[in-house]
Amino acid sequence: MPVTIKDVAKLAKVSPSTVSRVIAESPKISEETKKRVYKAMKELNYYPNAIARSLANKSSKTLGIILPNTAEDLFVNPFFIQAMRGISTYAQKRGYYIMLAYGEEEENEINIIKDYTNSKLVDGIILLTVRQNDKAIKYLREARRSFVVIGRPKNLENVLWVDNDNFKAMYDVTTYLIEKGHKNIAFIGGPYNLNVTKDRFEGYKRALEIRGISLDKELIKEADFNEVKGYQAMNEILKNKTPSAVITTDDLIAFGALNAIKEQNKKIALVGFNNTPLAAYQKPTLTSVDINAEKLGYNAAKLLISKLENKKVDKNHYIVETKLIERESTKG
């Protein structure tokens, strides 16, 4: 038979409600009573489960992570794995658990968030992407729920967020290619309803403008974050023009673009973003921008947990540094 709170109460000679208050770390219980209850718990090998503890504390000690992809895409795109590793690292330090959910569409995400927060399954929400006019952020703000976003929201009021300086990162990459002699530089971006794509495109555009290079719309394409779409976008560009260099906003897009370039036996410099592990194993190896996805996740969890624990924080966001990792795809 499993040991219950009643068994602990009987051995400690207190009421079951007193045991619950001890588990909840109530300051109204005397130290002497706490010692008796803890001693009884130890003798009976009783460990309150997470749900019982959360009911007692009115806190689940759990963070809900909302993934914007299907389970299949999660394991294809390493960004989410790396970000979650950072989240988990900090959460474990603070004694928090992680609960994952997949939202294939924006409305689906909001329904999941409502279920999580209204049922008190989680204390706070972490969103792993930001859309323009993001409905999930709008709901969380209006419902006054604790949350943090990996990405830069359009409206920064009452939002905790973590991001790279995506404008500067792309501006620097474009400048790097221009200084290597490239003028016809193509851009393959992720979905344009994402703020990260918008910010990186603005950085690309500004770098060209400052150096007097006209924007060529035939060299600009949109693609979902996968190899197939990257391959298709690159082939669409090559139908009309052959750029000397291509910048993509994600390594998975770059892998597809690289396949198209090799298939047509073209010599085109190529840069990706995220510096995923497979970038170093492409042929040629892929130059990519390391966005420190693990650090993004770590800082997101840090901001959210600090709020949940009512800690004083000096700022509502972190900007995580990026670094260009130069490899064969932009050399010679």
From TrEMBL:
<feature type="domain" description="HTH lacI-type">
    <location>
        <begin position="3"/>
        <end position="57"/>
    </location>
</feature>
<dbReference type="Pfam" id="PF00356">
    <property type="entry name" value="LacI"/>
</dbReference>
<dbReference type="InterPro" id="IPR010982">
    <property type="entry name" value="Lambda_DNA-bd_dom_sf"/>
</dbReference>
<dbReference type="GO" id="GO:0003700">
    <property type="term" value="F:DNA-binding transcription factor activity"/>
</dbReference>
<dbReference type="Pfam" id="PF13377">
    <property type="entry name" value="Peripla_BP_3"/>
</dbReference>
<dbReference type="GO" id="GO:0000976">
    <property type="term" value="F:transcription cis-regulatory region binding"/>
</dbReference>
<keyword id="KW-0238">DNA-binding</keyword>
<keyword id="KW-0805">Transcription regulation</keyword>
<dbReference type="InterPro" id="IPR000843">
    <property type="entry name" value="HTH_LacI"/>
</dbReference>
<dbReference type="InterPro" id="IPR028082">
    <property type="entry name" value="Peripla_BP_I"/>
</dbReference>
<dbReference type="InterPro" id="IPR046335">
    <property type="entry name" value="LacI/GalR-like_sensor"/>
</dbReference>
<keyword id="KW-0804">Transcription</keyword>
<protein>
    <submittedName>
        <fullName>LacI family transcriptional regulator</fullName>
    </submittedName>
</protein>
